[in-house]
Amino acid sequence: MMDVLRRDVKSLFLEREECDAGTVQQLRQALTQSTEQYRLLRDTVAAMQQKLAQASGAAAKRWHLKIGIASYFLGRTRDAAEHLRQAEGALASFYLAKALISLEQWDETLKALDRAEKAGYTATQVQLLRAEVYRRQGRLEQAREILGKLRDLSTHSGEYHYQQGKLYLEEGDREKAAEHFERAVELDPHHAAAWFELGFLNDLAGNDDEAIHCLERCIAQPPVHVGALYNLGVLYEDNNQYQRAIECYERLVRAFPTDERPRLFLKDALASREQSMVGQEPRPIPDKLQQVLDTPVTEFELSVRVRNCLERMNIKTLGDLTRVTEEQLLASKNFGETSLKELRAVMESKGLRIGQALEEGARYDPRFREAPPPPQLAFSEQEQALLKKPVSELNFSVRPRKAMAKLGIQTVGDLINYTADQLLEVKNFGVTSLNEVRAKLAELGLKLRGD
Fold first, then answer.
1. Helices then strands (H, E): number in the chain?
2. Residue 363: its pLDDT value, please?
3. CA angle, 112 as apex, 109 and 115 as ends, to 5°?
């Protein structure tokens, strides 16, 4: 089977003179067979570049078209655009427009779409792509007008419903957007972008299993959605599926060998996998220990994972455990429900509860005192507006966004009240994420507490 696929991928570009819509369809089919096909396609591109170096005139234009199409499906949008600009025909113009959309070069995209339509590319597909450009430019009325004229496509076009869903997202209506994305994948199970949006919406809603399913369907379709690989990798990490996360990041490293970002994600995932392999089984908890709040937690036979968490959070006694919430513990790296049950058992054996002092205050633990309210500082209206700015408007990547959701951080003011060490305690929040947070705050002239 692999020999057949290897021969097909090469023959599509090296043994056939023409490159048309049929070529694209066969390429899609080959790439869905296995990730190995991407390596074969990269080798084919290298061979075509050698052919191009020796060609001229019409032959050179054909090699530019082939290399441009292959590069687009490899996710090399800049290379694809460079070659497709030097090709001719409806297919070249249409895929040039798709590549330019990724590069957000709107004026040239619209010109390429005009050329594609005049050259005979399917008019409805050109119009749907034009609606996407208008939407991404913020020209929502024009996008809406185009989709209104194409409503007959609603019975059979997944792309139509995808574009409608994206328009509803722009308008803030996630429920209607989800309905259209679901209809899109129903009509076209291979619609990668619609699967990605469904994965993203389920991730926001905390439906990790469904989000993972949708993103797995997304990355099974060529060209592979880069954002889906990052988001899926983070979801795998959140669900302790470290090997699968590593595989996502390794694919990104192979695709973008000069990009440092996937290497940093891969490094964090490898470290998390190594740490997760320590102390897998909880140790038995003693039944009889002195019932006092200053009992050191070190007197209990706790698993390595729990001990590491308590040490990082500077929790030394059972009394300290009455002054933290379960949510704070669960936000700590590699501390999950199994570890929480272990600590609950310890506390219950002494007649205590995690977070009890927070609920009952000094009546339960005389050493606990409610912290006085912070001093009311005089902020200008502009400063107050900045501190009230939702962190959702800062466009954080998925990992810091999920960490802030776990911590209940909603505004910039909430965020700057945390220290770097507190953020680093959150599962799967590493130095890469911390640097991103610091960079975003620096743009606003702000810092984390303690920086």
1. 26, 0
2. 41
3. 155
Task: Name the β-bridge partners of 411.
Answer: 390
HEC letters along 340-396: HHHHHHHHHHCCCCCCHHHHHHHHCCCCCCCCCCCCCCCCCHHHHHHHCCEHHHHCC
* Non-local CB neighbours of 303 within 8 Å, separated by 6+ positions: 279, 281, 282, 283, 339, 342
Q: Which residue shows structure tokens 């570890």?
A: 339
What does each C-alpha distance from 311 to 290, 304, 318, 332 come to in angstroms?
21, 10, 13, 11
pLDDT band, very low/low/confident/very high, at 1 (cuts 50, 70, 90): very low
Topology of 381-443 in CATH?
Answer: DNA polymerase; domain 1 (1.10.150)
Whether the Cβ atoms of residue 73 and residue 98 lie closer than 8 Å to each other: no
Given this chain, do its domains 297-363 and 381-443 carry the same CATH topology? yes
Residue type, 292: V
The candidate with the shortest Cα–Cα distance to 323, out of 271, 365, 270, 272, is 365
- Bond preceding residue 372 cis, omega within 30 of 0: no
Between 70-74, 142-146, 205-209, 353-357, the lowest mean confidence (pLDDT) is in 353-357
The architecture that CATH gives domain 297-363 is: Orthogonal Bundle (1.10)
* Domain boundaries, given as residue ranges, for the chain: 1-121, 297-363, 381-443
Query: What values do phi and psi take at 445, rounded to 5?
Result: 80, 25
What are the CB-based long-range contacts (under 8 Å, 24+) for 132-136?
132/101, 132/163, 132/166, 133/101, 133/106, 133/109, 135/163, 135/166, 135/167, 135/170, 136/101, 136/104, 136/106
Residue tagged 């005049």 (tokens): 118
Contacts from 102-107 at CB under 8 Å and sequence distance 24+? 102/77, 103/77, 103/78, 104/136, 105/81, 106/133, 106/136, 106/137
- Mapped onto helix, strand or coil, the DSSP state of residue 317 is strand
CATH number of 1-121: 1.25.40.10
Q: What is each CA distance from 51 to 58, 67, 198, 444, in whole angstroms? A: 13, 10, 42, 51
